[in-house]
Amino acid sequence: MIKVKLDDICMAQSSNLMQKNLEKISGNHPIYGASGLIKTVDFYKQEKPYIGIVKDGAGVGRVMLLPAQSSIISTMQYLLPKENIHLNYLFYALQYFDLGKKFTGATIPHIYFKDYKNRELWLPTLPEQQRIAAELDAVCSILAKQKQQYKFLGELVKSKFNEMFGCPVANDMGWAMNKIEPELGKLDRGVSKHRPRNAPELLGGEYPLIQTGEVASAELYITEHKATYSEIGLKQSKVWKKGTLCITIAANIAKTAILGFDACFPDSIVGFTANEKTNSIFMHYWFSFFQKMLEEQAPESAQKNINLQILRELNVITPPIDLQKEFATFVTQTEQAKATLKTQLNQTETLYKALMQKYFEDEGGQE
């Protein structure tokens, strides 16, 4: 087995196809950009399968394995294998190199073949390249199926909400309507009398501190946190109980998630405590239908925000609590299935990373 440079096993070609010039063209041959398929046209530039690399702008360094009789636009670059390299093996080697970390340019990021053509990797025989690529293909196929199943379970819950309660915006099932406060529970802003970045002594203790980003990135439950308050930090804040529905009112507007543990949060987050007429799971999914509308209505300032009064006056469909509990039970069962699938997905991702490291770290992991 020999060590080679990328320049020895593939060659780059530029594209002069501008997306704006393709609007009136149609056909059967796909043309790709940084985000994937753009459209189909009546011509193609590459007869055989190839690799496309995003060289300019958003997604710079992304590696795409693309089919025969297709093309790419000018923000991408063709990478064509020579006779001594298996295309899929080259694709995985490039994935491992993580070209997106090597871009240059402050205004418009870019990376060209000249920037990475001297990267080295060991070149096994073609049959061995094919075996390695097939092994990685199989793991990627499992990963894709698991991700698809995970996404389906998330969509299933929203579908169940619509099935049980209709459209919450139109209220086409004619449910009673109640304002969030005081009719359905209590809303209170988080408390942080001082900004932690200006007072580091507030941080580093045992009391979890949740920020808007953690609410926005959670799915249903907030299960982890990055920061904690010290005893001093706790004294100028407030602890919210596990099960509280967190609602963001600044930066990320009307994103919601349920606390999976007792925690503090700042005044950019509102805590909702449900009464006997509703529950946090139902309210979380109700908000998911209104989040974009609330975000669009938020006044423009240094950063978007909404106030507590806007939330208080929102009218919420209020089906019988037993029906809401039935929905919450369905959600809980679905979340359990998602947790099992997430564990399997994490195991598959760990296997994929281990195989990539096994085949490419020593070979191509260094400049």
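Second entry:
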Amino acid sequence: MSDPPALRSLDPIARPSVADQAFSELHKQIVWLTLQPGARLSEVEVAKALGVSRQPVRDAFFRLAQLGFLEIRPQRATRVCLISTEAVGQARFVRTALEVEIVRAACGTMNAQWKKQLRRNLAEQELAVQADDRRTFHNLDDAFHEALCLMSNHAFAWQIIQQSKAHLDRVRLLSLSFNQKQTLDEHKALFDAVVAQDPDGAEEKMRLHLARLDSEINRIRAENPDYFAET
């Protein structure tokens, strides 16, 4: 009987560092507009609020600045960047390029299990709209689009979308003050096209769904002028 193969030493499982946790918390609060565009931040105050030292906060600030979410000004207060319509447009371009191909692929992979999951998601979206629960609706919106990526066997695409859409998310959250029902209706139309295995129809509906923000951005800016950078 042969000896079992020797296993090489395994690297220890990496756990989030304090800096990673500080970054994650600040990133979430910026995207969710808890930390509003233009808000001033202090390393000392943030460190105290998070119960950590200043170094991980400094590291988190640097990472957020690299993503375009914080403006670090020497000898002056760091602040949350105003929303850039250019960054929003670039994020939407990336998302459209990926999700058009995703939804076409999903038309060939729809099965009973995915149909049931998406129907449940749409029913929960309906309840969130009725309750005007924007945060829950936003999460369900993301879950709907993520499911399309997973069912088309392109989970990696959702990771890329997540990395690029954070600037877009701040505007999406602001838009939910008036467009939840329309967004839900568009999700239902996307679902119907995928179930019907109609890739051309699904692509058209996805393009219209993601392009709608172009016609809404002026209204969102008018309702929240202090949140936007000058163009």
